[in-house]
Amino acid sequence: MPTCGRPRLVGSRRPRREAALPAVLSALVLVVGMRSGEAAGRLGIVAAENFYGDVAAQLAGPGWTVTSILSNPDEDPHLFEASPSIARDISAARIVVYNGIDYDPWMTKLLAAARSNRRQTVVAGALTGHHDGDNPHLWYAPGTMPAVARALSADLAADDPANKAAYAARLDRVLASLQPIDRRIAALRANYAGLPVTATEPVFGYMASALGLVMRNERFQLAVMNNTEPSAADVAAMEDDLRQHRVRLFIYNSQATDSAAERLLRIARRAKIPILGVTETEPRGAASYQAWILGQLDALDRALSTPPA
Fold it and tell me: Considering only Cβ atoms within 10 Å of each terminal Cβ, which end of the chain, N or C, has fewer?
């Protein structure tokens, strides 16, 4: 998503509080070009989101530190506030990786303040040909992480050419470890393509499209993502789909629930519609990005294999 015939996503859900950012930018001016004591002598990667940081760590190997900024699965990423310590990490980084397409707009502001001629940036949205206004939840699109991995590996080798062969070997391993996700998607698509599903917001949208699922209530989802009130008609359509069993699965963002989402969860449970919770950061305890995504696909398989109520 978006696909032909579906409504285009307008904007993305921005942090609701950005009051601290000007102070952070001021602090960053003072640390541009400085390396903290902890980072001195080591090469640093800063990832805006922890799933990109996870893959960066798999590719980098010893000699690199990886710092992930958004990493708390119990926190709504849209409420994120940058801090001076994050500004220092970015100022010291040799490579920065982030999502882009207006999902993490604070990162572009911090990077603009932390000017550096030695820093490389990897932006998932640019790599995958997306633009502001597209669905920003790119890590659920099967093609995103291979593209990010290749770009990161190239930057690692450019920064540290003496270890180019080691980075190439790690890239091969990471790409091979992503292939089971593609195989799992193909198997699930063969079983479930065409089934109608719905969601509170389009977090899982790219994956749902890859699985061939038919996503309903997209206007409702866009309103939620853009922090606007869904229309009464869209709310009624969503609730009717759940009560009348017009959908086989209800997907919700378990990391950013509110009273409206909780109401829909109650309706889905009463109607015995299977429920799949998805998150916007890699959960604590996940062995890897690959294991996290495969686990979510397994959970979806269990939900959709349940006979309809």
Answer: C
